[in-house]
Amino acid sequence: MDLNNALGRNRGKRDVDTEINLTGVMNVFLILIPFLLLTAVFMRISVLELSLPSLDKKSAEIKEQKPKSVVLNFLSVRENGFELRVPELKLPLIPKKNDIYDWEALVSQLKQAKEKYPDAEDIIISPENAIIYDTIVTTMDRCREAGFPNISISG
Fold it and tell me: Which of 41, 128, 132, 148 is deepest in the core (most CB within 10 A)?
């Protein structure tokens, strides 16, 4: 027997491996990092290219060019035919022939509108509720064919 053990001096001391418990710290980081990422403010950096006006009269004349005029062409697709409305141009209703839409007459009227307003590229198609989808798609194709690539559909 050891003298220290005999006297009782080492009674409270034990040989224990001491490890650091990181579970609590990891739990805090597990909650803290997503919270910080969600509340962070991210900045978007963009570059604006600006050209300052010069003092030349020629550059001022170039900038004073006339803007393109917006022409509103409105095409109604009805059960009995087509009606194209163009400002300053009176076009008759295009009736169906033998219960079939007259696509050639529609393209002809669209080309007349394009001749009157060559810069116009927009057209609004307004079909009635009973018009089938295939008729609307064919109408859109004819409008593109006549020179109106920007097509909107109104209800």
Answer: 148
Q: Domains in the chain and their CATH numbers?
A: 74-153 (3.30.420.270)
Cα separation, 144 vs 152, whole angstroms? 12
Question: What band does 2 get if pLDDT is binned at 50, 70 and 90?
Answer: low
Predicted structure pTM score: 0.54
Nearest of 66, 149, 77, 65 to residue 114 by alpha carbon: 149
What is the predicted pLDDT for the residue at 138? Answer: 93
Burial, 152: exposed, middle or buried (Cβ in 10 Å; 0-12, 13-18, 19+)?
A: exposed
Crossing angle of helices 133-145 and 103-116, rounded to 10°: 40
Left (φ > 0), alpha (ψ -120 to 50) or beta: where does 34 sit? alpha
What would the pLDDT profile of 28-44 be if each residue is shown by its tens digit?
Answer: 989 999 888 888 877 77
User: 3-state class of 4 per DSSP?
Assistant: helix
